[in-house]
Write a structure and sequence with these properties.
The chain is mostly beta strands. The protein has a single domain, classed as Factor Xa Inhibitor (Irregular). The protein is 10% helix and 41% strand. The chain is built from two helices and ten strands; from the N terminus they run E-H-E-E-E-E-E-H-E-E-E-E. Strands 1, 2, 3, 6, 7, 8, 9 and 10 form an eight-stranded antiparallel beta sheet that branches. Strands 4-5 form a two-stranded antiparallel sheet. This is Lambda phage tail tube protein N-terminal domain-containing protein. It comes from Comamonas koreensis.
């Protein structure tokens, strides 16, 4: 087996509760996870570093270094379900300044945990042959100690 997998079966959940510690055990103990239903595109997420350049005049070459990092943003596409528990928490989070906890569970058992702010929940009505949908923008954050995305491999 090659170790690759499709995204079929991926589950994304949200909780208003922060972890006690920013590690696998802290996130595993978070209560009240609400699965976000009707997601059609889970977007992408991951750390990106700023590039710091240095150009010494004696050799004209540009040297590159890694600077600060940003955990990035994640865009979710979903069909609106006003009774879905996860979507209810998403809309509540939109009006809050606090970070919310997120859990992404992949088909093979890997889990990504992170904190994020819900920045937008934009509704769309495209056409007669489309679902009433929304685009949700998340801005991933980093703890004061520099922890961002916590990756937990499948057991």
């Amino acid at each position: 087996m090659s170790g690759v997998e499709t995204v079929a079966g991926t589950k994304i959940s949200i909780s208003a509760n922060p972890p006690a510690t920013f590690d696998a055990a802290g996130y595993a103990a978070v209560a009240a996870w609400a699965r976000i239903g009707e997601i059609t595109d889970g977007g992408s997420h991951g750390r990106t570093y700023a590039v710091v350049t240095h150009q010494p005049i004696d050799n004209r070459g540009t040297q590159k270094f890694k600077g600060s990092f940003n955990e990035g943003q994640k865009t979710l596409q979903l069909a609106i379900d006003n009774k879905d528990p996860g979507q209810i928490v998403l809309t509540e989070a939109l009006n809050e300044d606090e970070d919310y906890s997120f859990k992404v569970e992949y088909q093979g058992g890997d889990i990504d945990y992170f904190q994020a702010k819900v920045i937008s929940f934009e509704k769309a009505t495209a056409g007669v042959d489309s679902m009433r949908s929304a685009t949700v923008q998340l801005e991933l954050t980093t703890s004061k100690s520099g922890v961002g995305i916590v990756e937990v491999p499948a057991p």
